[in-house]
């Protein structure tokens, strides 16, 4: 039944999703030119709020749980498992007061309305996976922006999306670099559950009526810990939730 309903409601979702991206592309440009970073960020926040709303057009629901009063006067490194592209708008909206920046493939900076523009001009680290030197340089620039502007970042250490919800081992290089270069950052694990299910049949049809959950876990203060200890603790915290729920 989820698949059958998905044929109809996926189309409605994609039309709304596409219209938002096309509409907000010139709005982003205008906000950036006239109001600088602050206006552009507010525009991006609103856009992602609306994008999350399109999930409901596919019959899906979103639960974001954060029981912690996270600081806004220091950078935060949010570390999450990665299940689908639907993970990202929810994180941008709910973490908006922390100015979250993402690490993305450089290929995404071209050709996608709104998304490419934001990746190019919103402060993300856009890496070329075929060029290790360029990737490290981008991460170091991101670290500098985090320290200078008290921005945060969201990193998916699995490196790619899990199509079954089962977590992949963390690749530690990028996260280790950020921990070392932004030693004052708080580490906050986020467990994502169920977002892989919306694309269990591929991108069309979407699976109708899935419940997706984002849970902010206990923050980890890295002082006195090695990067490996921080990463292991973070990975285990997320794994306890995701695997404990059966993904």
Question: Could you walk me through the main structural features you see in this protein, from its secondary elements to its overall organization?
Answer:
The chain is an alpha/beta fold and 247 residues long. The protein has helices at residues 2-57, 87-94, 115-121, 132-149, 173-181, 227-242, and strands at residues 61-65, 76-80, 100-105, 125-127, 152-155, 186-193, 211-216. A seven-stranded mixed beta sheet has the order 1-7-6-2-5-3-4, sandwiched between helices. Helix 3 links the parallel strand 3 (100-105) and strand 4 (125-127). Helix 1 (2-57) runs parallel beside helix 2 (87-94). The radius of gyration is 18 Å and the shape is globular.
Please outline the helices and strands.
Layout: H1 2-57, E1 61-65, E2 76-80, H2 87-94, E3 100-105, H3 115-121, E4 125-127, H4 132-149, E5 152-155, H5 173-181, E6 186-193, E7 211-216, H6 227-242
Parallel strand pairs: 1-7, 2-5, 2-6, 3-4, 3-5
Antiparallel strand pairs: 6-7
């Amino acid at each position: 039944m989820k698949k059958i309903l998905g044929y109809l409601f996926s189309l409605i979702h994609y039309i709304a999703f596409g219209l938002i991206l096309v509409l907000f592309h010139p709005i982003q440009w205008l906000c950036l030119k006239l109001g600088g970073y602050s206006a552009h960020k507010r525009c991006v926040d609103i856009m992602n709020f609306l994008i999350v709303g399109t999930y409901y057009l596919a019959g899906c629901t979103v639960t974001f749980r954060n029981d912690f009063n996270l600081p806004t006067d220091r950078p935060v490194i949010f570390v999450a498992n990665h299940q689908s592209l639907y993970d990202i708008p929810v994180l941008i909206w709910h973490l908006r007061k922390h100015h979250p920046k993402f690490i993305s493939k450089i290929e995404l900076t071209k050709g996608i309305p709104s998304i490419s523009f934001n990746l190019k001009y919103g402060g993300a680290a856009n890496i070329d996976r075929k060029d290790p030197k360029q990737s490290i340089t981008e991460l170091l620039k991101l670290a500098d922006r985090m320290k200078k502007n008290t921005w945060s970042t969201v990193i998916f250490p699995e490196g790619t999306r899990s199509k079954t919800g089962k977590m992949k081992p963390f690749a530690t290089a990028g996260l280790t670099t950020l921990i070392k270069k932004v030693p004052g950052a708080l580490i906050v694990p986020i467990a994502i559950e169920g977002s892989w299910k919306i694309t269990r049949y591929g991108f069309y049809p979407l699976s109708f009526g899935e419940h997706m959950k984002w849970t902010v876990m206990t923050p980890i203060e890295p002082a006195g810990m090695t990067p490996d200890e921080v990463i292991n603790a973070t990975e285990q915290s997320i794994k306890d939730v995701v695997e404990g729920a059966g993904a």
